[in-house]
TrEMBL record:
InterPro entries noted in UniProt: AAA+_ATPase (IPR003593), ABC_transporter-like_ATP-bd (IPR003439), ABC_transporter-like_CS (IPR017871), ABC_transptr_haem_export_CcmA (IPR005895), P-loop_NTPase (IPR027417)
Protein name per the record: Cytochrome c biogenesis heme-transporting ATPase CcmA
Organism: Dechloromonas hankyongensis
Chain ranges of the ABC transporter domain: 2-203
UniProt entry keywords in alphabetical sequence: ATP-binding, Cell membrane, Cytochrome c-type biogenesis, Membrane, Nucleotide-binding, Translocase, Transport
Keyword ATP-binding: yes
Transmembrane segments annotated in the record for this chain: none
Organism phylogeny: Bacteria, Pseudomonadati, Pseudomonadota, Betaproteobacteria, Rhodocyclales
Amino acid sequence: MLEADNLECVRGERRLFAGLGFKLDAGELLYLQGRNGAGKTSLLRMIIGLLPPEAGEIRWKGQSIRSSGEDFRADLCYLGHLNAIKEELTPLENLLAAAHLADETLSEDDALDALEQVGLAGREDLACKYLSQGQKRRVALARLVKERRPLWVLDEPFVALDVAAVDWLAGIISGHLQRGGLAVMTTHQLVGIAAGTVRELKLS
Ligand SMILES: Nc1ncnc2c1ncn2[C@@H]1O[C@H](COP(=O)(O)OP(=O)(O)OP(=O)(O)O)[C@@H](O)[C@H]1O
């Protein structure tokens, strides 16, 4: 469903990678690995269509993501390494706003349920600026609880999470894969995620 052929990435003066390819089908997980600066985030940005490759092509359901545009974006959920939450808004407001921006329907009850699942019950109405780093990360990750778009692209999703939250997130990603979803993620910590197939791609 997601395929990349012969990708080349140049940032500034440096060629980060060339001739890179992969194939990912329903229920499969792709881990991107590599040292700091190897180009993992750059590759994720290519996959979501924000960074055009110097050469090569990425296809979703057989069609180039450059021509599938809106159809591709409707199937995509991207979580960056920054939390992309508004500090002045509460967790509940942030979650509802994120759903609205993504053109998704999310009821207040579902949002409250998601926040409870990420351990933020009792903090729903507190401005995010008063939350800890890990709690802010949990607000961002709460989006995934009700997320049913098939392709998840996650940049360092486990950063700042405690052991219990790492387990919780691994379970959420496993559930997505078991429903036939796909996930691409960067990580510096290999976390055990139950998946039909786990692929690893190392950028050097
Ligand atoms: N807009 C840009 N212009 C020039 N160089 C850039 C630009 N964006 C990124 N780079 C460079 O590209 C390289 C790869 O960056 P990238 O963020 O993709 O690495 P990464 O593998 O995700 O690293 P990390 O593990 O530290 O998050 C870095 O050397 C970075 O400085």
